[in-house]
Amino acid sequence: MSKSICKPFTSKLIIKTNDTDSKTASLLSSSPPNLYKDIVELVLLCTIDEDAPISSSKIYLAELSTLYAEKWDKNRVDQALFERQRIPNPRNELIVSTAKNALISDDIITETRCLYYLSGCYQRLLQQRDYFKSILSDIQKLFIDHSKTAITLPSMYPDQQLSKQWIDLLIESQNNSLLLEYIDRVNNELVTSMTDEIEVFYKYVFHYMYKVIQPLDYFNSKLSFYISILSNLSQWPILVQIMFRQSHPKTLSDRATINSTISVASGRAFQDTLIGSLLSKSCLPSLPGNPYIFFNQPNSMSEHAIQTTSETVWQLMKTYQDTLTQLFKMFIKNADARSDVLQWIGDCFDENHEKSKKWSSNDPLAAVIFVSDGFLINLTVILLNLAKPFAEPYSPKLLKIDPRYAICQNASVHLTNLYKETPLIKRHKETTDEKCSQATFNFITEIFFMSHFSYSCSVRGLYRKLLKIHGDISKKQTEYKNAVSLEESDSQTTKDLEAQIQNDHTTFLNIKSVLNEPYLMELSNSLLTSTCSWLVHLASSSSDSSSASNGAEQMSILKMLPLTSKPNPQLSYIPEFIIENIIDFFKYISQFNVRFFQSNESSINEYMYFMLVFMGDINRLANAHLRATLAEALDTIIPDQQDNDEELNRAFPAVVFEECPLIEHLPRVILDVFVSIELTEQAVAFQQKFNCRHPMYNILQYLWKFDKHRLQMKKLATYAERHIEDAEAPLFLRFINLLMNDANFLLDEGLIYMKKLRTHQDMKDSDQWNNMPEMQRQELENTFKSNGQYARYSNIMGIKTLIILNMITQYIQFIFCHPTICERLAAMLNYVLQHLVRSNYDVFNKILL
C-alpha cells in the first residue's frame, strides 16, 4: 500500500453524533471477521467509515476506507496498524465524538509516539481479552512484531527517541501489570534474535538511565523505581551483559564525565557509569569536597542524639544495600551473565587496587582518582551477602575454595592482580605455572577472594581514616587548649581550631556510624570467622591438593598445638591482606565497638585458634611484623587497656584467656613472636621493634594473673634449663636474654636523649637563645619535642622490660640461678647501677626531676 495518506475531506475535524445503543448491539453480534474490524476501532482507536455513528473519537484511515467489513482479517489489521503509525499528525485525521464523558481522551487517541501507541493498543486488547479471545494470540503477536520492527529499524521513525520512550514505559510499568506484560513480551522477542541495532537501542536506554540516576541523592524515591526496572530486565542475561559492558569505562563513548580531569583509565571512571552510580549512593560523600549528610553540629549533640542519628544511618544503609544485593543476585542468577558481572567487579578492583594501601586513606589525591568509600562499602556488603551461604566456620562449602585463584592469571580469574600480593610464606615461581595451566575456578572461590579484597579496600581503608581523624582531633584539641590559655577565647586562631575540630568530629561520627552498622558487622564477622577456620585447616594440613576439595576432605576443630607437620604449600598462595582483614576487624571492635564480642562470644574461639596457629609459627606466617600485629590485636581485649572499663564486661577477657581451647599455648606463642622480631632476616627498626613488643608486655602481665599460664611459663623455663647448653638456645632462654639486653639498651637510649634535652634546656636558659633567628629557634624547639618523645618512650619501655623481668623472677628462680644466666643478670644489674648512680653524677636542676 502507499505510504501517503489520502484525505477525502479538507476540514481537520469531522464531528459525528453518538449512537451507543446501536454500537453495543453490533459488538454483541460480531462474527470473527467483524472482530478484526472491532480490533481497529476498539484497540487501534481508528475507523474506516467516516459516516458511521461512533461512541468515542477515532482516527480516520483513508487508505483502508474502501474495504468492506466482511473482508477484514489479520492482514487488514496489520495494514491498518501500519497506516496509523505512519500518519504524521493524527489530529488532522481525528473524527470527534460528541459523547459526554468519553472513556478515552483525545490525547491517547492521537498518540504520536510509536512505542507508546503500540503499548496502549496491547493494553486495550488485554482489557477486552474475553471478547477477542478467539484472535487474542494473533493480535498480541502483531503488536509485539511491530514493536520489534520499530526498535530494530529506528530509521522508520527518525524523529522519535525510541529509547527515551522505552525508558518512560519501563518506569510506568512498575505500577501497571498490563504494560509490564507488554514490555516482557517485547524483550523476549528482542533477545531471541539479538542484533547490533537492538544492542545500540538498549545502550541508549541504559545511558539515559545513568543520566537520570547520577544526580539523585541517597534519599530519592526514584532510585527504587530504577532498581526495580533493572531487576526486571535482569531476567534476560543478554541485557545484563549489555548493561555491564555499557558500564565499563573501556567501552564507553560520549560519556558525560563529572570531572574532566578524571581519565577513563582511572579507577574512579567506574563510578561514572550506570552500575557505578547506583553503588555510589551513600551517606558518605560520593565526590571530593561534598559535605557529609549527618552529624553537622556534633558539638551540640547529646549522646542520645548521636545514637538516634546513627540508627537512622543504619536503617538507610540496610534498606538500600538490601535492594542492591537483591539486584546483584538477579544479575548473577544466570551463568551466561555471571562472568560479565564478575569481570566488571574484577576490573573495577584492578583499577582501584591502590585503595587497599595505607597511603590512600590519607592522601587527598585518592579521593579524585579512585571510586568513593561509599561505592566500595556498598559493593563490599553485596559481596558479603553473596558469600553468606558459605561464610560459616567449618562449613563444608569452605572446602570448595581453591587457593590457587590468588596466584593464577588465566581467563577464568577475574581478580587478576592478586598474584602480585605478598603471600603468607615464600612462593616458588616454578610451581605457579604448573598449578595454573588448566585451572578453572568456581563461584565460591571468586566471591571469597573478591569479598576479602573489597573489605580491604573499603572497611579497612575507612578504619585507617578513622584512626587518623581520631588522632587529628586529639591533637587539635590540645592546640585549642593551648591557644585559649595564651590568647582570647574568641580570637581568630581559636575560632579556626574550633571549626576544624567540629568538621573532623562530623567526619569521625559519619565514618564510625557506617562501620558500626550492625548488619555490616554481622556479615564481616561471618566471613572473617569462617576464614579463620579455613586458614587453620590449611595450616594444619600438609598436603597440597592443588584444587578445591572433591568432597572427601572434611574440616574439624583444631585439637593439638604446636603443629608439627610440614607447612602446606597452599599457604604460599594466600595474600597477606586476608590476615590483615582479620586483625583490623578484631582491633576495630575493641576500639570502637567494644560490645560486639559480648553479644558474639561464640566467634572468639575461631579468632583465638587462628592467632595461636599463626602468631608463633614463622613457617606458616613469615612476616614477623604481621605476627606481632596479631599480638597487638589480642592486646586490645585486655580490660585495663580500655578507655572505659565499664563498657567492656571484665569477665569476658578472663574467659578468653582462661577457658578458650588450647589457650595454654599462648605464653609459648607470645615468646616465639617476641624473639622472632630479633632474628636477622626478621629484624625491624628500633622504635618499630619496641612498638611491636609493647602489647606483648601487656599480654604477659595479664596472663600472669592465671595459674595455668604461669605454669606454662615454668614448663618453658624448665625445658630451657635442661637444654641450656644446646647449640640452638631454647625459646625461654632466648627470651630472658633479650629482656636483659633490652634493659641495657633502653637505659642507654634514655640517657642519651635526656642528655640532649639537658643541653637544649641549657641553651634556652642562656642569652644565646634570644639572639637566634625565629626560624632557628622553631627548628630547635621541634628537635627538643622529638628528643623528649624518644627519651620518654625509651624510659617507659625500659621500665616495662624491668617489670617483666621482676615478674618472672618472682615466680621462676631456678633458671636465673644457673651460673651462665646468673652472671649475665648480675652484669645487667651492675650496668644499670653504674649508669644511674655513678659517683660523679650530680643533680643540677631538681625541678626538672
UniProtKB/TrEMBL annotation:
Catalytic activity reported: S-ubiquitinyl-[E2 ubiquitin-conjugating enzyme]-L-cysteine + [acceptor protein]-L-lysine = [E2 ubiquitin-conjugating enzyme]-L-cysteine + N(6)-ubiquitinyl-[acceptor protein]-L-lysine
Record keywords, A-Z: Transferase, Ubl conjugation pathway
Any one GO molecular function term: ubiquitin-ubiquitin ligase activity
Short name of one Pfam family: Ufd2P_core
Record domain Ubiquitin conjugation factor E4 core: where: 276-838
Biological pathway: Protein modification; protein ubiquitination
GO BP: any one term: protein polyubiquitination
Classification via InterPro entries: Ub_conjug_fac_E4_core, UBE4
EC id: 2.3.2.27
Any GO CC annotation of this UniProt entry: cytoplasm
Stated name of the protein: RING-type E3 ubiquitin transferase
